[in-house]
Amino acid sequence: MKGIFKNKPRTPADVVRQTRELLVYVDSGAEPRETRREEKMDELYRNLREMKSILYGDSESEPVAEACAQLTQEFLREDTLRLVIHCLPKLKLEARKDATQIVANLQRQQVQSRLIASDYLEANFDLLDTLVAGYDDTEMALHYGAMLRECIRHQSVARYVLESEHVKKFFDYIQLPNFDIAADAAATFKELLTRHKSTVAEFLTKNYDWFFADYNSKLLQSTNYITRRQAIKLLGDILLDRSNSVVMMRYVSSKDNLMILMNLLRESSKSIQMEAFHVFKLFAANQNKPPGIISILVANRSKLLRLFADFKFDKEDEQFEADKAQVVREIAALEPQDRA
């Protein structure tokens, strides 16, 4: 009779269901006995490791599509994702990392050719509020930030974050004194402003005035070198993207914007100078320059031409040299506006 009553191996759905029960237990904090609680927590940590192994595979096997689909369906069928996000602060560090990787992976899992995580999040947008607010918590910021970036892969999620008040918080998060958290927030901000082209173009068009006022004053004119360097690089990525051509034309028609860029060209940092040049060349290349822009360029022509004559970088770059020559020609050919 030996072996007849062996336990059936657990399915991926079984693992999720048991994990959900354990998370409910953790969330309730009801168990007064420390030993019992430790046992439950250890069981939860084992389950998280097992789910991660199903989704990512391990040293011995690749992930199996059917098992991943089962796990994903069960995870999102009920509020397991909500429980994981809510209980994350109560888990130990390694378990937080496992949970973060699980949530990240679920965003990419297709079930019958659908990204069902996107549907779930559309019905539970309040979870995004929790993830964004995670940047205020030093211990949780990197975990919630990694989850948030993966969720932003879904266009509807990115649109929700951009259209909420949360987007304004990133101007502060990017300048947090904790370098790792600030860098993580900057990575999320970049993802929000570059991944979904049509959504970004619509957002920038609708919110042009306040967004670029804050971008200029808080980021491009920040006293923090790293903030300025990241901001000018991202600005170039945004304005040089064809889907943002209308926004770009508006940006390069502003005298205030031009003055900020000219100051960045004079920075001692070569990397900031180079990124500033990529934006400045858009002002110079504009064939419909407003009179105010022409006046500033003409008034500063000799300084700009001297600056560009000394503009050298460690590595030879043919495209940069060609762009620089074109900018110099454009500025040299400008005529004062009041010329008879």
Automatic annotation (TrEMBL):
Q: Which GO terms describe its molecular function?
A: protein serine/threonine kinase activator activity
Q: Pfam families under this entry? A: Mo25
InterPro entries from the xrefs?
Answer: ARM-like, ARM-type_fold, Mo25
- Give the record's GO biological process terms: intracellular signal transduction
Which family would the database say this protein is a member of?
Answer: Belongs to the Mo25 family.
Q: Which PANTHER family match?
A: CALCIUM-BINDING PROTEIN 39-RELATED (PTHR10182), OS07G0585100 PROTEIN (PTHR10182:SF12)
- Protein known as: MO25-like protein At5g47540
